[in-house]
């Protein structure tokens, strides 16, 4: 029975691989895929080992090759983002945010963030990681479109509450944040300015979005598996002095980490090498595909948010699907037809409208890595229309369409 149970697990993994990697249109904005060569390195002896501390100063022996890989990851991350400090040991973007929060804040000190309904990440909220350190969480005032920060009102807010921490960045992230405009005011009142670049890290690295550190952010956190197409890990990046950086280093280890999932370090290094060669081309195609999908969906009869602003400047678009029963229902219908999206609150949804919000959040970064370009965005929009507006079953058509795009591009395979 045990051997049969193991075989069942192996079969489930094979079915997942076949379904998601060759049959579905994946438009989840927080996912991406590894290249074949990067993925192959996930199954190595790195899975079995510990490496607490920094390369060359470990608390365990037997890490000579792990040290070499991790040190190169750190160096290449620093070079890619042009920063003096790079913490590469955190295992997710939320873990990196936790290191940030517990380093900067003392209990009860105020922070300013983007609110959840306009795309603020859950880790920035009272219910998430930030809430462990303070309940004094204020939100940026918004412009009438709901997606962009009102700079003048935010300047007034910063001067009034004098926050200890200001966090830019979101999970529904269509447009750059006004870091350059607000960072000087935040610094005047004594705040640390942070930028959560989890979703747009690959666009930043590919020089297709803003450069938060150059614009005044003190520290940037990020995830390495969204628009940056690596394994699931987290980063903290900064141009702080070595002395300023020491508290962050200590809060990472031993404050928030012991061992740090070493099996994902070699795939991250391979992805960094790929990105150095192909990253700008890839990121540029991503930011062409996203507005192309927005425009195509609008033509097909969907209510795409921010049409007057060009839909998006990132990898994401937001679609209001209230007339199709809401985001919960629409995402389920699409999934039944092998189009994978996630429901999402839109800026004017009630705060508790989470199970069936008004919107869908779509991301083009994974399908771009499989080689899709603007014409395929039009075909994707047509299939979504057939599914949600014409009430047709399109799974077989989706499968045939996807079968043309099964090889990962922008890599050395």
Features:
single chain, alpha/beta, Aspartate Aminotransferase, domain 2, 4-stranded antiparallel beta sheet
Structural class: alpha/beta
Biggest sheet strand order reads 4-10-9-8-7-5-6
Examine the secondary-structure arrangement and name the CATH architecture of the domain at 39-270. Answer: 3-Layer(aba) Sandwich
H/E element order: HEHEEHEHEEHEHEHHEEHHEEHEEEHHH
Low-confidence stretches: none
Oligomer: single chain
Distance between the termini: 39 Å
- CATH homology-level superfamily of the domain at 39-270: Type I PLP-dependent aspartate aminotransferase-like (Major domain)
Shape: globular
CATH class of the domain at 39-270: Alpha Beta
What is the average of the pLDDT values? Answer: 96
Give me the CATH fold name of the domain at 39-270. Answer: Aspartate Aminotransferase, domain 2
Helix content: 40-55%
| Percent range for β-strand residues | 5-15%
Rg: 21 Å
If helices are DSSP runs of H or I spanning 4 or more residues, what is the number of helices?
14
Largest sheet: 7 strands, mixed
């Amino acid at each position: 029975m045990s051997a049969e149970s193991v075989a069942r697990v192996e079969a489930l993994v094979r079915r997942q691989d076949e379904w998601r990697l060759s049959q579905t249109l994946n438009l989840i904005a927080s996912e991406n895929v590894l290249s074949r060569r990067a993925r192959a390195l996930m199954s190595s002896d790195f899975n079995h080992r510990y490496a607490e501390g920094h390369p060359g100063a470990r608390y365990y022996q037997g890490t000579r090759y792990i040290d070499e890989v991790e040190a190169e990851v750190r160096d290449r991350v620093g070079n890619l983002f042009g920063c003096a400090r790079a913490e590469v040991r955190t295992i997710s973007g939320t873990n990196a945010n936790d290191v940030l929060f517990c380093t900067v804040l003392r209990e009860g000190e105020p922070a300013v963030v983007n609110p959840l309904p306009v795309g603020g990440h859950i880790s920035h909220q009272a219910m998430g990681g930030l809430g462990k350190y303070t309940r004094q969480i204020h939100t940026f005032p918004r412009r009438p479109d709901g997606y962009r920060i009102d700079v003048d009102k935010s300047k007034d807010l910063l001067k009034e509450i004098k926050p200890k921490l200001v966090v830019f960045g979101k999970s529904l992230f269509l447009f750059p944040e006004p870091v350059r405009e607000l960072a000087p005011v935040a610094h005047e009142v004594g705040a640390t300015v942070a930028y959560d670049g989890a979703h747009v890290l690959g666009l930043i690295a590919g020089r297709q979005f803003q450069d938060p550190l150059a614009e005044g952010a003190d520290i940037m956190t990020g995830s390495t598996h969204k628009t940056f197409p690596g394994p699931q890990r987290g980063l903290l990046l900064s141009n702080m002095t070595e002395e300023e950086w020491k508290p962050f280093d200590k809060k990472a280890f031993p404050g928030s980490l012991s061992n740090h999932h070493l099996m994902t370090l070699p795939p991250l290094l391979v992805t960094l090498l790929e990105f150095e060669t192909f990253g700008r081309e890839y990121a540029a195609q991503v930011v062409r595909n996203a507005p192309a999908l927005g425009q195509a969906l609008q033509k097909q009869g969907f209510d795409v948010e921010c049409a007057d602003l060009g839909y998006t400047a990132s990898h994401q678009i937001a679609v209001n699907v209230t007339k199709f029963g809401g985001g919960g229902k629409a995402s389920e219908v699409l999934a039944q037809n092998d189009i994978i999206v996630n429901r999402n609150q839109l800026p004017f949804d009630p705060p508790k409208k989470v199970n069936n919000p008004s919107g869908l959040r779509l991301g083009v970064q994974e399908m771009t890595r499989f080689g899709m370009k603007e014409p395929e965005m039009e075909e994707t929009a047509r299939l979504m229309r057939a599914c949600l507006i014409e009430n047709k079953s399109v799974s077989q058509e989706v499968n045939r369409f996807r079968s043309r795009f099964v090889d990962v591009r922008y890599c050395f395979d």
